[in-house]
Amino acid sequence: MIRKIRIGILISGRGSNMNALVEACTDPAYPGRIVTVISNRPQAPGLALAQKAGIPTAVIDHTAFPGTAAFEENLHNHLIQNEVELICLAGFMRLLGAGFVRKWTDRIVNIHPSLLPDYPGLQPQARALADGRRESGCTVHIVTPEMDAGPILVQRRVPILPGDNTETLSARILEQEHLAYPEAVRVMAERLLKNKTANYKTEAALQKGLSMENHNVSVNPEELARARAMWKDFAHFTKYAIIVSVSILVLMAVFLL
Ligand code: GRF
Asked: Residue 227 pLDDT > 50, yes or no?
């Protein structure tokens, strides 16, 4: 079984970008699999879509918590418990606090319907139209504490046509979002797989003092074989070292007595 990066998707609404990722993950060669879809809104239509695809879902309703910190702590724990290694924000309509983002440095990606750094924040399509721009698009980027400002992974461009309104432009951009997001998540997942410290679940579980027992840990068979070979070599070496030491002691005892 090839090792895949465990993806958690955060949504707030219809979840069409989530669905594009769900479809991409049906390819056995895709380097990620979605282990949880979380919505902060109980009524998000994307939840039903995920359930239909057989993906476990959770509602973590931000209004049920006394404040952002408590909401984000709950979210963090849910992600850790599900051994998530990469978080994808897909129409997630809340800004994540700097504390949360730092805990997941280089492990959160977001999609935004503009060619960043142009038009970060709300209603980027309407603002591009109001400025008379001839071109727009979408950007997938790594999330950093500053909103919509992290390193760019993938951008796709679309023309702004005469007679466009917010709806027509948003629809044209959305088509490209559905291509850009799986492309960018592939890049991130491959990067994490190459990175030897990618085993975030161990790191995170240790940080949180969670037990690794009963966790369904997926292990790269090559790494396992390498570890077994190293252990075998070490065991051989130790055995011979003990035999030689004992022999020397016996010989010394014989000569001295
Ligand atoms: C998308 O345009 C995305 O770029 C923005 O919100 C919209 C969400 O769409 N952040 P969906 O929920 O993925 O269909």
From this structure: yes
**Residue 243 falls inside a structural domain:** no
Q: Is 78 a catalytic residue?
A: no
Res 42: pLDDT: 98
Q: Is residue 45 part of a domain?
A: yes
Confidence class of residue 101 from pLDDT cuts 50, 70 and 90? very high
Residue type, 41: R
Residue 231 lies in a domain: no
Rg (CA), the chain: 25
Distance, CA 111 to ligand 1 centroid (Å)?
A: 7
Cβ-based neighbours of 28, under 8 Å, separated by 6 or more:
2
179 is written with which tokens?
Answer: 């291509």
Q: What is the pLDDT of residues 70-83, one digit of tens each?
A: 999 999 999 999 99
Q: Taking the complete model, does pTM exceed 0.70, yes or no?
A: yes
Q: Which two tokens stand for residue 101?
A: 């983002």
d(CA 120, CA 229) in angstroms, rounded, equals 51
Percent of the chain with pLDDT over 90: 75
> Which residue in the list 62, 76, 78, 112 is annotated as catalytic?
112
Domain that holds residue 13: 5-200
- For residues 29 and 27, give the distance between their C-alpha atoms in angstroms, rounded to a whole number: 5
Q: Between the CA of residue 6 and those of 32, 85, 133, 205, what are the distances in Å?
A: 6, 5, 38, 15
Catalogue the long-range contacts made by 194-197 (C-beta closer than 8 Å, 24 or more residues apart). Answer: none
- Ligand 1 centroid vs 207 CA: distance in angstroms? 33
225 has pLDDT over 60: no
CATH code of 22's domain? 3.40.50.170
Q: What is the pLDDT of residue 231?
A: 67
Evaluate whether 138 touches 112 at the Cβ level (below 8 Å): yes
